[in-house]
Amino acid sequence: MTAQKPLLVEKKPLAIRADLSERQIQRYQPALQEAGPSNLELDQFDNRSPLRGLVIAGLATILVSFGGFFVWGFSVELSSATVANGTIIVDSKRKTISHFEGGVMNRLLVQEGDKVTVGQPLIELEDTRARSSLRSLQARRIGLIAKLARLKAEQNDAAQISFPNDFGDAWDVSIDDSVRAETIFFEKRRETKVGRVEVQRKTIEEHLELAASYDIQIEAIDRQIGFIREHRASMDSLVKIGAVPRTQVIEIDSRLSDLARQRGELVGNKAQSEKAAAGAQLALTGIESDFQSTIAGEITTARVDLADVEQQITASKDVLRRLEIRSPQDGIISNILLRTPGSAVTPGQPLLEIVPENEPLLVEMRVNPRDIDSIAVGSHTQVRLTAYNQRSRLPMEGTVTYIAADQSVDEKSNSAFFVARAKLDAASLEANPDVRLYPGMPAEVLIIHASRRAIDYITSPVLESFHRAFRED
């Protein structure tokens, strides 16, 4: 067996890749020493290294992760929400009971925690002054009704007054007093009127009788004048023949002149009497006319006064009715503020509160002014009751039903907020049957905004920052 000759390996300088770092060269140094004089190049060694697969796998993982993230960011939509603190309230809110006019408490008819219904009496106030005022007004009303009956009888020149059978809700004593007083006044004024009329009628009769007597005297004088004129005519012929002296004719003429003068005086007196009678007749007519005018004015005034009194009676009855304070709604008595009988009740003073029962419940929220543009009526809400364990309770869904038109300010913290209300969905309440809601319970409310892509949540702050940066001086 021939001995094999050792292979001669040509030693060539190793070609080291220029893109290797010093750290990689140090890692490959042991392998280079074992290789000794070889024609293997570092490129071949690097191609067979297991690190290349790890690097490629890592790069692929990174590329897939970034690609998946961007696909997810551009395709998936996420919802944002505004967080607000809220309180459970009743839709109609609790009613504060007070009294408009005020007065003095007589009795408290309910206790705190009592259930009351609409119209149930709660508090009685003293009614002495109100009843006295009502009776005074009713008595005045009766007097005005009786007065109108008397005036109508006078207007129609009736012999007696026809009073109404029904004076309304009045007392018999007041009716009797008013009827008696008006009857007496009617009779006295009737007597006065009749007396004045009789005086004028007698005056008319006297003047007419005097005028008639003047007529008789005038007729007698006219007859005398006629006789004397006939006698005078017969004496003219006797005077001519001298049988009768002329002096007799002159005496007859003088007598005729006296009779004519007397007749003229009688005619004048008759005219004066007739004029006086006419004046008395005019006065008689004036008495009736003035009386009717006075009656008409008094009727108008009495009707106006009666209408005013009836309005006052209505108001007084309303005051008397409100002295028994009644419940305006079904509910539970709460926060009684006045309990002692005889205590003064000022107008508008809170007396107690009624919490409505079986009324829809709402959530009243305080929204930060910076978030007000993100919510609107109809926005979806999720309500979490902080009084319950959140792990075992589902959030209750709701819808925004009201947003205040202007902001309010908390007097204690001096912080501004907008009041908003949300109505709870019936399905959410049914999904939490063991949850009981009470007015005043605290809650945390998420007001859901419109959905946006996930990438928008990342890019929006950057874009807004650039937008502000480009506007700065």
Automatic annotation (TrEMBL):
Annotated ranges, domain AprE-like long alpha-helical hairpin: 130-319
Domain AprE-like beta-barrel: 361-448
Membrane-protein topology: Single-pass membrane protein
InterPro entries named in the record: Beta-barrel_AprE, HH_AprE-like, MFP, T1SS_HlyD
Coiled coil, from the record: none
Keyword field: Cell inner membrane, Cell membrane, Membrane, Transmembrane, Transmembrane helix, Transport
Main location: membrane
Membrane-crossing segments per the record: 54-74
Localization per record: Cell inner membrane
Similarity comment text for this entry: Belongs to the membrane fusion protein (MFP) (TC 8.A.1) family.
Listed name of the protein: Membrane fusion protein (MFP) family protein
